[in-house]
Design brief:
Length: 71
């Protein structure tokens, strides 16, 4: 019986390295799930603001929203 290794990449930015991933793991199976934008955009804004708070004292939610929508 062949061993099955499952790794998960859950961040949208991992898609930028997809070509390298498939070169390193040519037998990889990639599954892309889609979420409703009404749920995913606020979630990404919240995550971005939380990470920003590690580096910046004042976070402007409107600026975070604009960056997320630009992304």
């Amino acid at each position: 019986r062949q061993m099955c290794i499952r790794d998960r990449l859950k961040c949208p930015s991992h898609l930028f390295g997809l070509e390298g991933l498939l070169q390193a793991f040519p037998d990889a199976c990639v599954i892309q799930c889609h979420r409703n934008l009404e749920n995913s955009v606020p979630s990404l804004c919240s995550l971005t603001a939380t990470i920003d708070q590690l580096c910046y004292a004042d976070i402007d939610p409107r600026q975070v929203g604009q960056r997320v929508l630009h992304y």
